[in-house]
Design goal:
The complex is a heterodimer of chains A (276) and B (303). Chain A is mostly helical and 276 residues long. Chain A has 11 helices and no strands. In chain A, helix 3 packs antiparallel against helix 8. Chain B has a single domain, classed as MetI-like fold, CATH 1.10.3720. Chain B contains 13 helices and 2 strands. The radius of gyration of chain B is 25 Å and the shape is flat. In chain B, 44% of the residues are buried. Chain B: It is found in: Cell membrane.
Chain lengths: 276, 303
């Protein structure tokens, strides 16, 4: 057998580094002892306790709703921004727009959170809205930084799309809006789905920005997890972590499966075209 | 023959395109750009016992409008060694973590880009999957591994290699490890995207001309992947400087990082003007890295 190269060894070690800590979490979620680090036998009791914890369940529901609405709005805004940047040529404000699309990708969360909170406080003083902060303010904050990610995903797809399809539709007399909805949108649909999913996970995951802009009305899942984890290791959180890891892995596997199937279909279609 | 699509799009959109552009531009201006102006304004005001807890800069009297700008917050930051130490500590920790990410991530991205085509998607998903789970929970995982009665110490004690647990939790080492672990996928992604576009014939030409593989790497691959290195490093370095969760959970009393200091000024001391000044100085320090990232990103978008 050929000796594996240095980079292959690094790839395997790197993947182990990424996955071992998560496997440890999953493993200890089935531990019957309260001490997370001492193995005392197999048990599912932490899962039962997790589902009895009303505070966590409420926070999950709040987080899911915020993530759903943030992701949906971010896809609309991000797609518009991407379309404008890729298809509109030059216009005044383009540099500003493209800077404001890339900057949120790296902006430290404490800065974004603080600045948005101060904005909301000012708005409340000036126009009386938002009177109290909660889900609506978190929704605005999440939509803003998620739409930057969506714009990056969608614009890279828009650049790959063949312009001739849109051109043909318009030559046949379709107005631009109809062309956009009937030709462009279906072609970039996979990117929209990917952008939506990315925005959804980003919103579900955010602790820092939500902590700044939230009020007493809305407690998201990361806030509950954080206040519990701060006090030390807790087996209930391990059970929650296991469920999250399971869900994400399943979703990723399904995405991979469908991507592979559509790729295989495409290949067969191409072969038939060549033969026929 | 009809006019090319860009012209027709422009003709149709000209009266309307202003509106299409305005929607994302206005949203981002209102909720991303404008807030920085407000942070700047608050950083120039003075703390007060009020709701909200700062003094007004512009005071409108019966016949006068007075503008009171106070630099005391900035002077305060300079005079207290805690803040200077926090900025320096953040930059140092973020730099070391970024370097470690690069040294681990580059070979991984290289191996991924060289892997057979049908493996590449699987490897990419495997690398990205952890980042789609929960950031908080991935940091939390290390608490159980590194603590004094954690997995590593228990194993070493059981094997008889050590007599008393090694202190790993609540150290700078734990913070750096946490940052590397949390941000590694964001280093690999742009590197991989860059390395897959690398023209294989260049490497072949170099080896045909008698260049040894390491020499080829240094003279061909490395310079061509500069864009990916910059993008990946900035995606790790900039957020790491302002990181709050990782130093809070894995760091100890000796870990002073600016994100944590800002959080405490804001939430524990309720000193909004000092927190704002801290944010403005952090933003000023990060301006060059952010500009660097933006330049790479917009070049990437043009291709």
């Amino acid at each position: 057998m050929r000796k594996p190269s240095f980079t292959t060894v690094m790839l395997i070690l790197g993947l182990l580094f990424l996955y071992l800590p998560m496997l440890v979490l999953v493993f200890y979620s089935f531990n019957s002892s309260r001490l997370v680090t001492v193995w005392a036998g197999f048990s599912g009791r932490w899962y039962i306790e997790l589902f009895r914890d009303q505070q966590i369940l409420n926070a999950v529901w709040t987080s899911l709703r915020i993530a759903f609405f943030s992701a949906s709005m971010a896809v609309c805004l991000g797609t518009l921004a991407a379309f404008v940047m890729v298809r509109f040529g030059r216009f005044r404000g383009k540099t500003a727009l493209s800077s404001m699309v890339t900057a949120p990708l790296v902006m430290p969360e404490v800065i974004t959170g603080l600045s948005l909170l101060l904005l909301f406080v000012h708005m409340a003083q000036l126009i009386g809205w938002p009177a109290d902060r909660g889900m609506a303010t978190i929704w605005i904050a999440h939509t803003t930084f998620c739409s930057a990610y969506v714009a990056v995903v969608v614009s890279s797809r828009l650049r790959e799309v063949d312009l001739s399809l849109e051109e043909a539709a318009m030559d046949l007399g379709a107005p631009p809006v109809k062309t956009f909805f009937q030709i462009t949108l279906p072609v970039i649909a996979p990117a929209l789905a990917a952008g939506w999913l990315l925005a959804f996970t980003l919103s579900l995951d955010d602790l820092v920005i939500a902590s700044f802009v939230s009020g007493p009305g809305a407690t998201t899942l990361p806030m509950v997890v954080f206040s519990s984890v701060r006090l030390g290791v807790s087996p209930k959180i391990n059970a929650l972590a296991t469920l999250i890891i399971l869900t994400v892995s399943l979703a990723t596997f399904l995405a991979w499966y469908f991507m592979r199937r559509s790729e295989a279909k495409r290949r067969i279609a191409m072969r038939m075209q060549q033969e026929g | 023959m009809s006019a090319p699509i860009s012209q027709r799009l422009q003709r149709w959109f000209r009266p309307r395109r202003g509106w299409v552009i305005a929607v994302p531009l206005l949203w981002l201006t209102l909720f991303f750009l404008l807030p920085f102006g407000i942070v700047l304004k608050i950083s120039l005001s003075e703390a007060a016992i009020a709701i909200p807890p700062y003094s007004a800069i512009v005071n409108v009297g019966a016949e006068t409008v007075s503008l009171v700008v106070s630099f005391s917050n900035y002077l305060f930051l300079m005079s207290d060694s805690l803040y200077v130490a926090a900025y320096w500590g953040s930059l140092k920790i973020a730099f070391v973590a970024t370097l470690a990410c690069l040294l681990i991530g580059y070979p991984m991205a290289y191996a991924m880009a060289r892997a057979p085509a049908h493996w590449q998607l699987v490897l990419l998903l495997l690398v990205m999957l952890p980042s789609w789970t929960s950031f908080l929970i991935r940091v939390y995982a290390w608490m159980g591994i590194l603590s004094n009665n954690g997995l590593i110490n228990n194993t070493l004690l059981w094997l008889g290699l050590i007599d008393s647990p090694i202190r790993m939790m609540n150290t700078n080492f734990a913070v750096i490890l946490g940052i590397v672990y949390a941000y590694l996928p964001f280093m690999i992604l742009p590197l991989y995207a860059n390395l897959t576009r690398l023209d294989g014939s260049l490497l072949e030409a170099a080896s045909d001309l008698g260049s040894r593989s390491f020499n080829t790497f240094l003279k061909v691959t490395l310079p061509l992947s500069k864009g990916g290195i910059i993008a990946g490093s900035m995606l790790v370095f900039i957020p790491a400087v302002g990181e709050y969760v990782i130093p809070e959970l894995l760091g100890g009393p000796n870990t002073v990082m600016i994100g944590k200091v800002l959080w405490e000024e804001f939430f524990n001391n309720r000193d909004w003007p000092v927190a704002s000044a801290l944010a403005m100085v952090m933003l000023a320090l990060l301006l060059i890295p952010i500009a660097l990232f933006h330049r790479y990103q917009s070049r990437e978008l043009k291709e």
